[in-house]
UniProtKB/TrEMBL annotation:
Residues 420-481 form the Pre-SET domain. This is SET domain-containing protein. One of its GO terms (cellular component) is chromosome, centromeric region. Its main location: nucleus. It is found in: Chromosome, Centromere; Nucleus. It comes from Salix brachista. Coiled coil: none annotated. One of its GO terms (biological process) is methylation. Residues 68-89 have a biased composition (Polar residues). Residues 630-643 form the Post-SET domain. PANTHER family: HISTONE-LYSINE N-METHYLTRANSFERASE SETMAR (PTHR45660). GO terms for molecular function: double-stranded DNA binding; histone methyltransferase activity; zinc ion binding. SMART domains: PreSET (SM00468), SET (SM00317), SRA (SM00466). It comes from the Eukaryota.
């Protein structure tokens, strides 16, 4: 720049050279015959860009237009001396600012405000949502005893509430109604632990009450809430024990999920790497606890992390039982640093868990055959995945003949609501106010990712043929066929049953009930002929599975009686046996079809179901007016069985245990009383008849 422009108008054409900032040297013009650097003064004078300037110095562009250098006024405000260069811009004319309502002229700021307003959402009171769930389970005040020492019921309740809350948070996130957390699992776990809804808080060596070998989990936070493994991230959990006057750490559990390249896993053992990846590992914290456990020889719980086939970025955590450390050493790891290595061996006599997973994978790969297989695909290609027919119990060659059909057929028209269909071209999106199907479901999609249902509803609405959305729409979950590898197998005492080779997460879709819809008179006729072993009866009394008994707000509510006969034609659902403690629940689903709705029955998982675990659902209770028909002897074997014997014996025993006040002299009378009640319940034919209820697939 040759010289500073004068006051008044600015001639920008005077800018002749453009030079990088790092090469510029400040040059200020001065009046003629004026010595810019008087004797004794420094060669440079640092002043704010807007002045005031010492005598002999003039302002430079873009501050040359300032009329009053010492006291800025009007549109020009004082600028501090420490201001970034990119914060300066040419002053905007007053008229333009007034026309914009003094809202500012930055396009970036405008876009940011618009984005913020677009994403603004009404506040969702998470505390109210949590309190409603806790009140439903009567867990507002979780007992202190169950918090420190749990049992199967307390573990089941905590996991059920955790997954229900996690799915509801995920649904809100999915619909963009609220930004609660990018990790609904962490948010749900933190909320429950803050509320005190957790169990087995007291750390312990060995087995955890209420947790069985082979139990599966899809989130590390689940391990924490039930006391199986406390750290959310760390792979080693340890506690301090007192040795004489000192304390030392010992390991109580480890998670082996392939986080370290040096880990080596086997069916009944593994070589586990210590903590620390960046440099040589130190004998401290978890590493020290493992070393101490080697010398003490205490049991250590091992949880195996396995890749989730349904979610490539996730893992399934399998409790593999108790191990002991056999030896330890230090070696150079693959990263070049010193790594502590611990060899653990599985204690004998425990049920298979991780070993079973590896065997199933070999079945899928075809490296080893499935023993006892009768048919590789019972469906003859009617399903998207094959369904094996297996009998490794006796020599029976299969169930009675039937036609495999994955659809539900109506023999005559039934009353239905009018339906037009949605106009979603791509897919139905959560929170879409213009989607009729979403609005019929209360403004939400009933399912989150992976086809997981949020909660049990009286009815959910799915898209149908009149809708423009594609078959892959998330609101067509029950129409996509089987998603997991199933097998029909022969049980020991309940006929044929159904189970999965794959792990099932809570809320996952299993299948629909296919067959022929019949009226009540036809069902009564089949019951009289003892041919009702493959019937779904929607007229029975059902308790909701995700709320306390007696709260029927979310119980299944059929708009008209639906009875499905799968005796001659049906799908895999006809093999699902009854249990008074089921792991599946049925959900009414209305599908839009030609300006009306078709009613279907879909099955979902109540809780996580490990591989090779039989699927069961509650057949419901026979109404009083039908007490003479359809009531059968229950063989589910659950302590909560409603069929008589086991349930009565269990309840009386618990009552006597309370009355005796832990006096050992009553142990024998309690045992005898329970046996007598069990025998009496089996003999009272007015309670149940002789037909087995759970053996519906003979």
């Amino acid at each position: 720049m040759e010289e500073s422009p004068g006051e008044g108008s600015i001639d920008k054409s005077r800018v002749l050279n453009v030079t990088p900032l790092r090469t510029l040297t400040p040059v200020f013009s001065s009046p003629p015959n004026f010595n810019s650097f008087p004797q004794g003064s420094p060669p440079f004078v640092c002043v704010p860009p807007a002045g005031p300037f010492p005598p002999g110095f003039s302002p430079f562009f873009p501050f040359s237009g300032i009329q009053n250098q010492s006291v800025p006024s009007g549109d020009h405000t004082p600028i501090s001396s420490a201001v970034p260069i990119n914060s300066f811009r040419s002053p905007e004319p007053r008229s333009a600012r007034e026309a914009n309502g003094n809202a500012g002229s930055s396009r970036r700021a405008y876009k940011a405000r618009g984005k913020k307003e677009k994403n603004a959402s009404p506040d969702v009171d998470l505390d109210v949502m949590v309190e409603n769930i806790l009140q439903s389970y009567n867990l507002v005040e979780f007992e202190e005893a169950r918090r420190y020492d749990g049992d199967k019921d307390s573990v089941g309740h905590v996991l059920l509430v955790f997954n229900l809350l996690r799915r509801q948070i995920a649904q809100l996130e999915d619909s963009k109604e609220a930004t609660l957390s990018k990790r609904p699992d962490l948010k749900a776990g933190n909320v429950l632990m803050t509320k005190g809804v957790r169990t087995n808080v007291k750390k312990r060596v060995g087995a955890v009450p209420g947790v069985e070998i082979g139990d599966i989990f899809f989130f590390r936070m689940e391990l924490c809430t039930i006391g199986l493994h406390a750290p959310i991230m760390a792979g080693i959990d340890y506690m301090s024990v007192k040795i004489s006057l000192d304390e030392e750490p010992i390991a109580v559990s480890i998670v082996s999920s392939g986080g370290y390249k040096d880990d080596v896993e086997d069916d009944d053992g593994l070589i586990y790497s210590g903590q620390g990846k960046e440099m040589d590992q130190k004998l401290e914290r978890g590493n020290l606890a493992l070393e101490k456990s080697l010398h003490r020889g205490n049991d250590i719980r091992v949880i195996r992390g396995i890749k989730d086939v349904g979610n490539p970025t996730g893992k399934v955590y399998v409790y593999d039982g108790l191990y002991r450390i056999q030896e330890s050493w230090v070696e150079k790891g693959k990263s070049g640093s010193n790594v502590f290595r611990y060899k653990l061996g599985r204690l004998p006599g425990q049920p298979d868990a991780y070993k079973l997973w590896k065997k199933i994978q070999q079945w899928k790969d075809g490296s080893i055959p499935r023993t006892g297989i009768i048919l590789p695909d019972l469906t003859s290609g009617a399903e998207t995945l094959p369904v094996s027919l297996v009998n490794d119990v006796d020599h029976e060659k299969g169930p009675a003949y039937f036609n495999y059909s994955p659809t539900l057929k109506y023999s005559k028209p039934v009353p239905r609501d009018p339906f037009v269909g949605c106009a979603c071209n791509g897919a139905c999106l959560p929170g879409n106010e213009n989607c009729d199907c979403v609005q019929k479901n209360g403004g939400y999609l009933p399912h989150i990712v992976n086809g997981v249902i949020v909660s049990q509803k009286s009815v959910i609405y799915e898209c149908g043929p009149p809708c423009r959305c594609p078959p892959t729409c998330r609101n067509r979950v029950s129409q996509g066929g089987l998603r997991v590898r199933l097998e029909v197998f022969k049980t020991k005492d309940r006929g044929w049953g159904l189970r999965s080779w794959d792990p099932i997460r809570a809320g996952a879709f299993i299948c629909v009930y296919a067959g022929e819809a019949v009226d009540d008179s036809k069902a009564q006729e089949l019951a009289g002929e003892n041919e009702d072993n493959h019937i779904f009866d929607g007229t029975r009394i059902y308790q909701p599975v995700e709320v306390l008994p007696g709260d029927l707000n979310n119980a299944p509510n059929l708009q008209y009686p639906l009875i499905i006969n799968a005796r001659n034609a049906g799908n895999v659902a006809r093999f699902i046996n009854h249990s008074c403690s089921p792991n599946l629940f049925w959900q009414p689903v209305l599908r839009g079809n030609s300006k009306e709705f078709d009613l279907h029955i879909a099955f979902y998982a109540i809780r996580h179901v490990p591989p090779m675990t039989e699927f069961t659902y509650s057949y419901g209770m026979v109404p009083p007016e039908k007490a003479d028909h359809g009531k059968k002897k229950c063989l589910c074997g659950s302590p909560k069985c409603r069929g008589g014997g086991p349930r009565i014996a269990f309840c009386i025993k618990m009552l006597l245990l309370i009355i005796r006040n832990d006096d050992p002299q009553y142990d024998y009378p309690v045992l005898v009383g329970g046996m007598v009640l069990t025998i009496m319940a089996g003999k009272l034919k007015f309670l149940v008849n002789d037909r087995p209820r759970a053996a519906n697939n003979v």
